[in-house]
Amino acid sequence: MKYFFVSTPIYYVNARPHLGHAYSTIVADSIARFHKLAGDTVFFLTGTDEHGDKIVQAAQKAQMDVQRYVDDISSSFQELWPHLEIENDDFIRTTMERHKACVQYVLQKVYDSGDIYFAEYEGLYCYGCERFYTEKELVDGKCPDHQVEPTRIKEKNYFFRMSRYLDALRRHIEEHPEFIQPERYRNEVLAMLREDLGDLCISRPKTRLTWGIDLPFDTDFVTYVWFDALINYISALGYPGDDRFRKFWSGAHHIVAKDILKPHAIFWPTMLMAAGLPLYKGLRVHGYWTVGETKMSKSLGNVVAPLDMAQRYGVAAFRYFLLAEMSFGQDASFTEEALVQRFNADLANDLGNLFSRTLTMTHKYCGGRVPECGELTELDREVLSIGHNALANFQGQFQHFHFSRAVASLWELVRHLNKYIDKSAPWALFKAGETIRLNTVLYVVLEGMRKVALHLWPVMPSLSEAMLEQLGWKWDLAAVDLEGETSSWFGLQPGTPVAASSNLFPRKEVVAAPKPEPKTAAPTKEAVDFEVFSQLDLRVGTVVEALPHPQADRLLLVRLDDGGTEPRQVVAGIAESWKPADLLGRQVVFVANLKPRKLRGQVSQGMILAVKTKDGLALLSPTSPVPPGSVVS
């Protein structure tokens, strides 16, 4: 049995949860769920860091007792996580007695071994970071994070002989490339270790700060907040006496943002060495979320509240966007427009359309039950090969924290299944009476949908289970064979009832304040008789291909699945408002009974309907996916 331990940073309670907190915790939840799918025993930890100067200052500013202040902010984190479908196994707080006892145990152990000493020190102290800086670390004489000049402080304190363990740490990092990832942060830590880092001040005199954990060997001092906070990763496992520490620590992975790289990559492992404890398995470091390319700031009013986003666009959309949009380790930009665009393109158009059209055809052609799979053709085997490769790649990328790459791999299968439907044309097979071939095609697609839904469980848990339920597949985590999913394509039982339809991913719009419209009447054309209008055959088609017109910049060649045996080509004057890639999978309304005509040398078999707005052309689409060829009435 494999044990997997994953932790977020414990969040500092000088502010309420924001997008950065949500991302770290959703990443941790997703990797924890992935390892559960793989059959591992998992422990997922998060919590709050509640000691230090900044907390006292924040409580004073809020005119609250310090303990009541930290209780209030900590509860805001604990209450948020279930709303984002985050299921942590423990929530540690540094004000808990079990944590305090562990911190004092480790301090006494390191002190007894001779690695803590008392000395007078004069240095440059940043109250915002609650740490001393060297001259080299400053930027133009200021703290690189807070952009303020540090205060020169001279005082007696206790120091941890960190320098004694730096060479051993450097060797460990060089010999274990996986210890710190992505590689850019591993290289950054190795560069730090080439500098003279010295020893670490680990106390604050009570004459300056009382809100902290007393040193067990000198109660006139409290513990430096980082030496206190980092120990949460083992205090939550019940160190030293609890069996959970023995089981889970060897598989420990810490998820942190890049701003706290140094404490986790240098302070923490040297502390573990001094305490005679094994090092954690891996440190996984992610970048920052910006908002419209600007760093989040309360003063700018652009801090993203995670619960607001989840309530406005759905938890699945929010979680999917964060994991798919950020390349883990690099910075990424958050905008509501980007969230909605990715949701509509990936979930509504690609995945939602796949579920809608396939379940509809299963009811129309197979009585609403999973059909028998007949003999596979070369086209079918191509789907299986692409599917197995996509799933194996998803699993490999996901377990190495490459979430955006993993999602992209899975979407190769989603998009290929849609193309496979277009090539196989089940509607034509039904008309031709080729029942065995029709059943095989639909089985291959339904099983592909089941695999996609299953692999999405770490990303969007509730909707994954809802998709599986629509396919008649009973969700049972204990019965999942994740490795087996990449080798077999026969997980669905023929005869299983499936849902009649699916609308799990309705298209979304960005909610914006309406702009005042000019009070001029829109021009109207001459009225026509109803009999003339009724001659128009308006239908819904799904875009399966879109290309620039070779001879006209304003025209696109759009190929539509209209429910027939072959896609129809429509030449559309929408190139100034729509890129070809943004049209793929989208459903549009078109005039189906126009006589074919050539436009700049290309045959057009219809006309796509659009509305002219001040922002360009808006396409007419159904509010939820419908079968291609559906009549507009």
How is this fold's topology laid out?
Elements: E1 3-12, H1 19-37, E2 41-49, H2 53-61, H3 66-80, E3 90-93, H4 97-112, E4 116-126, E5 131-133, E6 151-160, H5 166-175, E7 180-181, H6 183-193, E8 200-201, E9 203-205, E10 214-215, E11 218-223, H7 225-230, H8 232-235, H9 243-248, E12 252-257, H10 261-274, E13 282-286, E14 289-291, E15 294-295, H11 306-313, H12 315-325, E16 332-334, H13 336-366, H14 378-399, H15 403-424, H16 426-431, H17 435-455, H18 461-470, H19 530-533, E17 538-549, E18 552-561, E19 568-572, H20 580-583, E20 587-591, E21 597-599, E22 602-604, E23 607-608, E24 610-613, E25 616-619
Parallel strand pairs: 1-2, 1-12, 2-3, 7-13, 12-13, 14-16
Antiparallel strand pairs: 4-5, 4-6, 6-8, 9-11, 10-11, 14-15, 17-18, 17-20, 18-19, 20-23, 21-22, 24-25
Helix pairs in contact: 6-10, 11-12, 12-13, 13-15, 13-17, 14-15, 14-17, 15-17, 17-18
Give structural notes.
With 633 residues, this protein is an alpha/beta fold. The chain has three domains: 3-286, HUPs (Rossmann fold, 3-Layer(aba) Sandwich), CATH 3.40.50; 336-486, Isoleucyl-tRNA Synthetase, Domain 1; 530-619, Nucleic acid-binding proteins (OB fold (Dihydrolipoamide Acetyltransferase, E2P), Beta Barrel), CATH 2.40.50.140. It is 39% helix and 20% strand. It is built from 20 helices and 25 strands. The strands form seven sheets. A six-stranded parallel β-sheet has the order 3-2-1-12-13-7, sandwiched between helices. A five-stranded antiparallel β-sheet has the order 19-18-17-20-23. Helix 14 packs antiparallel against helix 15 (403-424). The chain is elongated, with a radius of gyration of 30 Å. The two termini are 59 Å apart. Residues 513-524 have low confidence and may be disordered.
